[in-house]
Amino acid sequence: MSEQAERSTKHTGFDPAGIRSQFAILNRDIAWLDNAATTQRPEPVLVAMNEFSRRHNANTRRSVHQLGAEATAAYEGARAIVAGFVGASAPEEIVWSSGTTAGINLVASGLARWEIGPGDEVWVSTMDHHSNWVPWQQIAHKMGAKLKIIPLTEEGGLDLQAFRNGLKARRTKWVALPWVSNVLGRVNEVREVCDAAHEAGARVLVDGAQGVAHLPVDVAALGCDFFAFSGHKMYGPMGIGALWGRRELMEQMEPLIFGGEMIARVDEQTSTWAEVPYRFEGGTPNVAGAVGLGAAIQWVQSLPASAHAYVADLTKQAVEGLSVIRGVQVWGPPAERTSLVSFSVKGVHAHDVAQVLDGRAVAVRAGHMCAQPLMRALGIDSAVRASFAPYNTQDEVSRLLEGVLAAQELFT
Amino acid sequence: MSTLYPAALLAHAKNPYGSNVIEQGKEDGEALNTGCGDEIRVVLSWTADGCLEHMTYELHGCAVSMAAASMVAKRLEGKNRTEIAAMASAFATRLGRTGFEEEWGDFQAFNGIERYPARIHCAMLVWQAINQVLSKPKKA
Question: For residue A63, is it left (φ>0), alpha (ψ between -120 and 50) or beta?
Fold first, then answer.
């Protein structure tokens, strides 16, 4: 590690080397700064998933045999871990999903669409990811409702005043927003939005995907009605995620996936549904994925507070380093930023910046980052994003900054 | 790394031929790179005898898509629709596959792009827009 990196370690009291060794993939010569897209998986997650496949693989719930009992225990045990992680009152408030997108779609199509009618209003925010925009856009249009958008303030935050002024009692039915913006890294005022929305009689879904790896989760403190997140952005596997919802609202929600595992009784012409949350989990579930997400949550919970301070410090160094490069524009407010920074380099397309960085074994995101409405609000087509995890080093931040300079030199 | 951005490609990308001189009322076509959101609109104007007088375009895109548009705009001048369609398919079979032979000149800058499969779309963007123009019914 460089001298600089050691200084950074001393600064936060956290040594990334200790956890870096748990990530086999980091033995490759890659500075992985695309953590907001997908984090890498530590050994305990890989071992837990492997162990499930090697020792306990079976269908859950319906099996009488020993392996079935073990698989059910693993699956439901992981559900309990998720429930504890988000601060749910009971494991039954957790629905397994394939990820944040699937969780949001379940709420939008399974519940919201039955509550929205012509003349009603649904809100999203300018900084929502397409996964928390398109489902609401489509439901609003199908049901003859209006899609309204929380605008940005000049500083790049959510314009809560405009939102409060625009709320209409009995007309505003649903509000969707991201806890943390995947482009700006900004932590949004979820509690304020929830309180205002509830006062108007609306319900709120929070896209938690970018927050769960970095911030303590407490759905009661956030004040939302639904909270969706993914495993692969918090050191867990792809293809698994979870949705938390208020029990009474989950009871009103319609299943979208019909078939095995989700029924109570099937007659020729009619069926009744299993209890919440099982009625939303039709088909054979991704049990190994659930086990992996459970292990990932335990891994995140085992991180010391200094690990989060360290990530914040790396992010700050990146923001400061980029800000002083002439021709580089850093997007988003400097304060209340989590673990990522998006930026543009004047005269150089984001993909070209990312390509030059890739040539130097630094992996970053480039493009519209599934947030085209936000890109338009910022007046750009695309941006470059570097995002950090506790296994990153100050040396990697330096490589990022050097790569940006190299891209400038090549193209301008 | 340097193989994606050889000097010939950078020269076109920095000083693109035919860029941003969109003429209204001519045949035009658009294409969108769904992976990154890059967009191009091309306008083709024809001579009385059906040859391409010139191609102009408005492009929000990366160096690869810009260089491709620039090289193509230069290369297509004077060609008729049949020749342009033939060149479109000749380009597609070479890009990221067999590579461009010497007679393709600057296009050889794309040889090696197969190592960057995510960027092949970028070089194809201009052709998608051109193909859209060619597939429209011919204006009287």
Answer: beta
